[in-house]
Amino acid sequence: MSRTSPMSATPAADTPESDRMSALEWRVGGSLAAIFGLRMLGLFLVLPVFSVFASGLPGGDNFQLVSLAFGAFMLVQAFLYLPFGLASDRFGRKPVIVFGLLLFAAGSVMAAWAPTIYWMIAARAVQGMGAVSAAVTALASDLTREQHRTKIMAMIGSTIGLAFSLSLVVSPLLYAWIGMRGMFLAIALLALLAIPLLLRVVPDPAHAPVQRERVPLLGVLKDTQLLRLNFGIFALHVLQTAMFLVVPHQLIERHGLALGQHWHVYLPVVLGSFVVAIPAIMQSERKGRTKQMFIASIGMLLVSQAGLWLGMESLLNVVVMLLLFFAAFNILEASLPALVSRIAPTRAKGTALGIFNTTQALGVAAGSAFGGWIAVHLGPDWINVMTVTLVFAWGLIALSMKVPARLTVKTVALGPDANIELMRERIASLPGVREVAMERERGIATLKINPERWDESRLQRLIGGEA
């Protein structure tokens, strides 16, 4: 076997202490954030005006059908996150993302054409089939170093808050200008434009995980650390959805703000939350205090929910508590998938993120269902009781969370004649090696290593000895 030096799988992988993101990482983060944002626009941009438009369709006088048409997007996504994550592990990230974007675009065109509420339900379901979140976040993880991964996830996750705030401002204006059908066509066009952005701007990872072996789904499902993180994203989105069943009504009833004026509160609060969250994320990553920041953010959520419960009469208090909520939300929305990508096995990263995104969608559904039931049967104030209790329980669970040591990913070219099984066993025994994944056809090993214990010379001697 010819001797080949190990290659860096991610930018500057051989210098893990670097505190600066590379130009490649900035490009990856910006491009994937734009692609991810298109999915969020499909959900949020139509939110303020959808019920008005859908009620004018034949059959739209049935409010339950209108609600189903809107919710079909997220409902279908919840079922497809895991299959798309599995597929990205098996066939590669980019093919799965392209397929999802094409489905999303097709559903958007179908929604623009839909002549009845029943066709609109079907169109929203087809839109929801573009469940690319797990593949996008897994690709971001493949292309970035662990010390910068939370920042990249923050760039991608920030599109949620930005898309939500932007939709509140822009959606009514677009609806008046081009109508709902024009909005759906614009969303379809943006999805199609994202495909060349993905293929030409986002590079292929050096350790692209195209697996021929069975992905360890059961092991991922049973991993107790991943279960803690999955519960966290579930709780976070139960909280977000349930909270916004109460807050808009309170702004109208207690503070006299018309619905069209709510963006005056939401937009500065969301933008201000980034001013708080981004430096906090950067400092926690630089100083290795991920768990402390994680627990502190849950504490901020607890304060925000208790503050909204006890101080809804003061508009200033509401603004401050929403600022706390969105700051904590942005930190956790970035930290959770970054931690999943660090803990998950290399060859099951997309699968783990698929499960993670499924629990996220289930959290949205559960927050809406339970929050609505509580509001009707017990009263709106009891929603705050539920959110405070849920966040407190999450905090207790998070205290036992173990943050893994920061790892570096490397690829090693072994050559086509290498004894793959023997090399897997020998490489796995080297100090600092956390995980080894083999690509038999290409003769490549992908390693997760702890740089503090890693000895490059031992790997070189091992490869030379195999020759």
Structure description:
The chain is mostly helical. It has 3 domains: 17-212, Up-down Bundle (Growth Hormone, Chain: A); 213-404, MFS general substrate transporter like domains (Growth Hormone, Chain: A); 406-466, Alpha-Beta Plaits, CATH 3.30.70. Helix content is 71%, strand content 4%. It has 16 helices and 4 strands. The chain has helices spanning 23-44, 50-54, 63-91, 93-113, 117-128, 133-143, 146-201, 217-222, 224-253, 263-286, 290-310, 315-343, 349-377, 381-398, 420-428, 456-466, and strands at 7-8, 408-413, 433-439, 444-449. It has a 4-stranded antiparallel β-sheet with strand order 1-2-4-3, covered by helices on one side. Helix 1 (23-44) runs antiparallel to helix 6. It is globular, with a radius of gyration of 23 Å. Residues 1-17 have low confidence and may be disordered.
Task: Kindly list the characteristics that best describe this protein.
mainly alpha, Growth Hormone, Chain: A, Alpha-Beta Plaits, 4-stranded antiparallel sheet, disordered N terminus, MFS, membrane, MFS transporter, transmembrane
Separation of the first and last Cα atoms: 5 Å
Structural class: mainly alpha
* Count of the separate structural domains: 3
Shape: globular
Average per-residue pLDDT, rounded, comes to: 80
CATH topology of the largest domain: Growth Hormone, Chain: A
What is the N-to-C order of secondary-structure elements (H for helix, E for strand)? EHHHHHHHHHHHHHHEHEEH
Radius of gyration: 23 Å
Trace the largest sheet across and list its strands: 1-2-4-3
* CATH architecture title of the largest domain: Up-down Bundle
CATH class of the largest domain: Mainly Alpha
The tally of strands reads: 4
Main sheet attributes: strand count, strand direction, barrel closure: 4 strands, antiparallel
CATH superfamily of the largest domain: MFS general substrate transporter like domains
Low-confidence stretches: 1-17
Number of helices: 16
Q: Approximately how much helix is present in the residues?
A: over 70%
Give the percentage of residues in beta strands: under 5%
Subcellular location: Cell membrane
Main location: membrane
Pfam families: MFS_1
Membrane topology: Multi-pass membrane protein
